[in-house]
Amino acid sequence: MLRKLLHALLPADAHEICRECLYVAVQPISFTKPPTLVSEFFSKDDLIEALIASCYIPGYLDHGFTSMFRGQPHVDGGFKDLVPRLANVLKPGERGVHVLPFPDWVARALDIPIEIGPSLVPENVFRDVELFRMIFVPPTEADAWRLFAIGQQAGINYLEAKLA
């Protein structure tokens, strides 16, 4: 469902639009390796595979054990570190934004600031308990579209606050 959703939402040149302004953290299956930030994508499919690799939980997105990205098996980085600290993966001088789908109390418990997330959108139709459940149980397709709209609004709210 996620791959289908991303193909429907992203324009054909999404990989070019995102080049060097979107950084996706991917975690190779080797847990001795740190997450890698990917900011150059070869195609729309390459971008989509990076996005899926960044959040791939075995048995959640499909029945596989890993997601293949650029010929290597990957899993959600949460298996090693629930949310990578940006300071640990960014190069000196780079700035990142934490985009988290968690309820704000989960982020507070992890001591991670949420800069873009559903809890920051007044129009959010999901209660915290529903967002927390979706960490473990995939949402319906209708709820996935609602979450997308909420995430999109959270991004707009973030940008408007930064530009104000």
TrEMBL record:
GO function terms (MF aspect): hydrolase activity
Ranges of residues in domain PNPLA: 1-89
Keyword Lipid metabolism set for record: yes
Signal peptide extent: none
SUPFAM superfamilies with a match to the protein in the record: FabD/lysophospholipase-like
One Gene Ontology term from the biological process aspect of the record: lipid catabolic process
Keywords: Lipid metabolism
Motif DGA/G: positions: 76-78
Annotated protein name in UniProt: PNPLA domain-containing protein
Organism: Monosiga brevicollis (Choanoflagellate)
Upper classification of the organism: Eukaryota, Choanoflagellata, Craspedida, Salpingoecidae, Monosiga
